[in-house]
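We modelled the chain as a single entity of 173 amino acids. Its sequence is:
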Amino acid sequence: MRFSFFTLILLFAVLNTVKCTMDSCRQTFGSRKYDLNRLSKFTLFGSDDEYDYALTLCDIVKAEACHGHIVPYEMSCQYNRAFQMWSTMAFLDGKSTFSPNLNATYTENSDGPGTGVFMTTNNGDPCFGRTRYMRMKLICDRTVEQPTNMTIVQWSNCDFHVEVRAIQACPIQ
């Protein structure tokens, strides 16, 4: 009986962590359907003078991408190289432990129909009295099949703007 109980717990743990993609990453704008979960198999990296960033859109970012730290349901992290500290930039929908625990929001790219999606999160770690905010411009670029990089700029404290080019940001046919 003991073996079965532990086996059941282990199976539950594995099934619970295998795939955590977000249903909200599937969006329709007019006749154009986007499935950003197609980007969940890629970890995107960016950096600036002080920080390293990692993002796995619509899924959990891997610990090795965030300098070894593990935070449940973390989608993106920021690592301060000077202080060797990290912060969670965004959590999966409904998984932040901080208030407000908001889900991601989406709009179609303002460059025109079929050019991509804006994804906005406002559920990261506390940062100077508010939560970290990310606005991700996901650009439909049929020449980038295996994205690995993102451009990221901190516009003001705790306000990050990201740009990703990928074929997976194009409408699905």
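As a brief sanity check on the tokenised model: The first strand starts at residue 26 and ends at 29. Helices lie at 2-18.
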